[in-house]
Design the sequence.
């Protein structure tokens, strides 16, 4: 079941968004629970779970960006949608690693398309690590990399799991996952965690602040940049 929090100080917008989101999950027969909040402070005091959050940027004392940081501290895996008419907040929202920006009034088709990606990325990958099976959601994988003839899965918590699979096997396993791109034979990267690209260096940032630098080959750097730009445009 998805736990969804909608936070906006405008009651009409809260209810309208609740209706559209509820229709999406009802149409797809996916279990969900929606909680409504009129301020960032109210949401940050909420003790229940939040898997997906819709945050208005311009709210009272605690704006949507500040509220988002509070949510991430409690739940690093939360998926954040920013709902706003204020373009000047976009840079701050990018630092927050927002999943999508939604302009008011919210476009139903764009919202549905984004939620399709969220539910698709909730699929899990299972692999063996240290003789034990490990199951991780696709969207929680920062990257898969090779080091000293072993492969590792780095998660958004900063934990790296050694695996017995080869990079060739990982490439085959992840080739149909839209958010993954392979800039080098030794790296398969989740584009959502790319903080910046400097030349052929790719800086990845986990949700707990831990960073890792991956590298692109000369042959693949341009295609990787294009993948990253395309992903950014969809947010």
Sequence:
């Amino acid at each position: 079941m998805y736990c969804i929090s909608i936070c906006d100080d405008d009651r009409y917008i809260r209810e309208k968004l609740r209706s559209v989101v509820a229709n999406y999950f009802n149409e797809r027969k996916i279990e969900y629970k929606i909680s409504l909040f009129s301020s960032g402070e109210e949401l940050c005091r909420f003790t229940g779970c939040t898997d997906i959050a819709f945050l208005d940027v311009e709210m009272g004392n605690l704006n949507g960006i500040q509220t988002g940081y509070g949510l991430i501290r409690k739940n690093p895996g939360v998926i954040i949608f920013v709902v706003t008419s204020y373009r000047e907040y976009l840079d701050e929202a990018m630092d927050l690693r927002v999943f999508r920006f939604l302009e008011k009034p919210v476009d139903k088709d764009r919202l549905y398309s984004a939620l399709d990606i969220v539910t698709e990325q909730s699929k899990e990958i299972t692999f063996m690590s240290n003789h034990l099976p490990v199951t991780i959601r696709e969207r929680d994988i920062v990257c898969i990399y090779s080091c000293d003839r072993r492969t590792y899965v780095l998660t958004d918590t900063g934990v790296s799991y050694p695996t017995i699979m080869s990079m060739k096997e990982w490439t085959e396993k992840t080739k149909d996952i839209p958010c993954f791109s392979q800039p080098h034979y030794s790296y398969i990267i989740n584009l959502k965690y790319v903080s910046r690209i400097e030349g052929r260096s790719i800086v990845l940032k986990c949700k707990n602040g831990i960073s890792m630098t991956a590298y692109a080959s000369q042959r693949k750097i341009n295609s990787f940049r294009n993948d990253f730009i395309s992903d950014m445009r969809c947010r």
Summary: The radius of gyration is 18 Å. Residues 2-121 form a domain with the Rossmann fold fold (CATH 3.40.50.2300). Helices lie at 11-27, 40-45, 64-74, 90-95, 108-121, 167-174, 221-233.
